Amino acid sequence: MPKARSHFLILGSLVGLGGLVVLGAVVFFLGNAWFGLPVNAQAPVQPIAFPHTVHAGTEASGGVGIDCTFCHRNVDKGPTATVPSVQQCMFCHSKITGAGSASPTAETEITKLRDASAAGEPVNWIRVHRLPDHVQFVHDVHITYLMANPGKIVNVTPVINPDGTADAGQTCSTCHGDVAKMAAVQQVRALKMGDCVDCHRQNNAYTDCAACHY
Ligand code: HEC
Ligand code: HEC
Ligand code: HEC
Ligand code: HEC
Ligand code: HEC
């Protein structure tokens, strides 16, 4: 075999091998994007042990019964839900110190909040849900859709109001589970590409790549 030709063959098989490796990587990343497990299937430890049970839980279950949208103010108005500032917490916690609470952790944890407020520092909450930067997600569109189609809301009881309508705060469980019953928020739904696309297909929403990718 002429030397040049054998070089060509070696080069060819190297390119082939490289191609296989690249293909393997693509299959891996796509498989992971479609079927991978949620990033935070376990609740991360937060700088302040903030219990949704106490704040968002119903009064009947011993909670304060604050609506999700009171704290996540932007959730039905734009893409991001937003987490409340220290000032928003101090609306109540300038008076509620946790002293004498039946909960053994209340005073220590609320003190951390009041200290941050006095120092003018934010609380650096650790993100539970986080999509990669190349994916775009918008909250308001989903919430409006679920409010208009309360039958699509899942993961919580009672699902909707007695008259058949749903408030913005009653739609969240569809993707986040029953947060009002979580002492620490953890991710419960995959929210991977396969999950998003399946729901879009079932509800006649866009499935073209540009709908979700920049
Ligand atoms: C509408 C009023 C209200 C707002 C707003 C509010 N809280 Fe509370 N919070 C309460 C009440 C009531 C309790 C129960 C206090 C008790 O057990 O004595 C509480 C309890 C707590 C506890 C103690 C829980 C425990 O039992 O260990 C922490 C920590 C806490 N809040 C943090 C926050 C943070 C952080 C924010 C802002 C994101 C916030 N709260 C906003 C009313 C509020
Ligand atoms: C008193 C204010 C308050 C209320 C009411 C509240 N939240 Fe939150 N929420 C927070 C704070 C503070 C965090 C950040 C700390 C954490 O993750 O627990 C948070 C975090 C979250 C997260 C995780 C965000 C992430 O990092 O991915 C979700 C999801 C969430 N809340 C949903 C809800 C839902 C649904 C309700 C209503 C059932 C609700 N919240 C009611 C204050 C509140
Ligand atoms: C259709 C699914 C879906 C619904 C419905 C939904 N979320 Fe989310 N939520 C997500 C996804 C996906 C992310 C991660 C977004 C990202 O990383 O860009 C997220 C992130 C968040 C975050 C943290 C980041 C941020 O946007 O500030 C909070 C807080 C949150 N959601 C609260 C809520 C609340 C409250 C509701 C109901 C009023 C709600 N979500 C309804 C899918 C949903
Ligand atoms: C519960 C079902 C459901 C899930 C889960 C869901 N979506 Fe959607 N999404 C919809 C529906 C329905 C619409 C169309 C709403 C309308 O136009 O009224 C939509 C619209 C959107 C839009 C807006 C398109 C536009 O410009 O109007 C984006 C972006 C989007 N979804 C991204 C995502 C991503 C990313 C995920 C996964 C993290 C996701 N969605 C999960 C049902 C869902
Ligand atoms: C309904 C929303 C949605 C649509 C439509 C969609 N994607 Fe995705 N895609 C996602 C989400 C969400 C992720 C991130 C999954 C994860 O957490 O890794 C993703 C991840 C990916 C990744 C993996 C990148 C990585 O870092 O692992 C590729 C490649 C991709 N998408 C390509 C496409 C192509 C090509 C199309 C059109 C045929 C498409 N997507 C349509 C939501 C969508």
Word description of this protein:
- With 214 residues, the protein is an all-alpha fold.
- It has three domains: 1-35; 40-83 and 127-214, no CATH class; 85-124, no CATH class.
- Helices cover 43% and strands 0% of the residues.
- The chain is built from nine helices and no strands.
- Helix 4 (86-93) crosses helix 5.
- The termini are far apart.
- The mean pLDDT is 87.
- Bound molecules: heme C (5 copies).
- One heme C binds at residues 48-51, 54-55, 64, 66, 71, 84, 88-89, 91-93, 96, 98, 101, 103, 105-106, 109-110, 113.
In short:
The chain is an all-alpha fold and 214 residues long. It is built from nine helices and no strands.
Structural topology:
Elements: H1 3-35, H2 52-56, H3 68-71, H4 86-93, H5 106-119, H6 139-148, H7 173-176, H8 193-202, H9 209-212
Helix pairs in contact: 4-5
This protein binds heme C (HEC) (5 copies).
One heme C binds next to helix 6 and helix 7.
What descriptors fit this protein?
214 residues, mainly alpha, 9 helices, globular, binds heme C
Radius of gyration: 24 Å
Main beta sheet strand tally, sense and closure: none
Which H/E pattern describes the elements? HHHHHHHHH
Helical percent range? 40-55%
What is the total tally of β strands?
0
- The percentage of residues in β strands lies in under 5%
Averaged pLDDT, please?
87
**What structural class do the secondary elements suggest?**
mainly alpha
The coarse overall form would be globular
Poorly predicted runs of 5 or more residues: none
Number of helices: 9
Distance between the termini: 50 Å
Number of individual domains: 3
Bound molecules: heme C
